[in-house]
Amino acid sequence: MNQSLKAIPVPNDWDRRGLPGWTYHSQALFDLECSEVLLTHWQIAGHVSDVPGQGDWLAFDFLNERALIVRGKDGVVRAFHNLCRHRGARLVDGEAGQCKSAMVCPFHGWVYNLDGTLRGAARPESFGDLDRGEFGLKPVEMEIWHGFIFLRFRPGPQPSVAELMKPFDADFEAYRAEELLSTEAFGRWSFEPLPVNWKSVRDVDNEGYHVAMAHPALQDLYGRSYRDLVYPGGISHSIGEFGDQPGRLWSVKLYTKFSPEREWLPERLRRSWSYYGIFPNSVIAFTPDGAQYYHDIPLSLNETVVGGRLYRRAHETREERAARYLAYRIDRETSYEDQQLSIWSNESMKSSAFDNFHLSDLEFGVRAHHDRLRVLLPVVTLDAAPPEDELAHVNEEMRSAGAKTQ
């Protein structure tokens, strides 16, 4: 961690309310969130180890966008829209795969080189004077930072990933993030879609106040030391140290036994689980044994998929592999517990008895996330929902009025 970076202090007297309940069940607002928040901010799509060789590819579907990440013959990783320029068919189908020297559209057989250029169309004489240079795959904005692949589908307010995440450079360097390897087992994971708005998932994940009550394994592992730190720019760091006691639960007891101390890590990270949050919906997490990223992918207003990918270190010993598996078990159980909390929170906002949140100082991360949404979509500051067909207009008027007063 860049020691010059200062966490945002929790104010002595602050507004402890969250977003009003209507913001979790408004289709018009969800449409705005998709177009002006989720698609305009960086999304994690994988790691360079997921595409290790020539022709290896990853697919990433997000809202109505489809991305294809592929490593070219020159070793360069590139990102394109997963749409053939002829009729829009998917060039690749599935989560990951490999193509030898070209990508062939399964609809009509158009062929693309691994660098996205059009090699040729089937029956080219039927297209008249077709300029192949004008029909290459359309690129998606991509940035690779410490091995992690970030995509952005529309221009947005965030700076480059390197600038945004610069405060965490030292930590990711210490964790040797670029050297991580994709895991053969449990590599890609996701749960069944949750019947919740994506913000309800974030609300649970953005605070550790609930750890002591809701997560027995995490509390047993590191709950005594767990803390959330919120930083400017929409990033956060949550961390907990383990090893001060052997653990009561079998998974924790075995994990603390098998997880060796990595002397190559700085002392402050050797016995830590660290989570790096990235607005609006992503987290990269490290344990001494491995790493993962996870994110909340909205499918619709009230349907969200939580998923991600797991990574390991090279040359694992049997003991290290066992520790990584136990960490996965603990984290998986925690995720199931969080899912139920998300459902309860999301459904409560439809009740006539719902009176908004009343946040603890330990839940300041929830407030910080909501504040960024308030800046981007000022309409969410209204206690009562405007008419659905007027919401976008009201939001634009409020944004214009705010700009004039600055």
Please characterize this protein's 3D structure:
This protein has helices at about 25-40, 160-165, 170-175, 200-205, 210-215, 215-225, 250-260, 320-350, 365-375, 390-405, and strands at about 45, 55-60, 65-70, 75-80, 95-100, 100-105, 110-115, 120, 140-145, 150, 180, 190, 225-230, 235-240, 270-280, 280-285, 290-300, 305-310. With about 400 residues, the protein is an alpha+beta fold. The chain has 2 domains: about 1-40 and about 185-405, Naphthalene 1,2-dioxygenase Alpha Subunit, Chain A, domain 1 (Alpha-Beta Complex), CATH 3.90.380; about 45-155, Rieske Iron-sulfur Protein (3-layer Sandwich), CATH 2.102.10. The mean pLDDT is about 95.
Give the key terms.
single chain, 406 residues, alpha+beta, Naphthalene 1,2-dioxygenase Alpha Subunit, Chain A, domain 1, Rieske Iron-sulfur Protein, 8-stranded antiparallel sheet, 4-stranded antiparallel sheet, 18 strands, 27% helix, 24% strand, globular
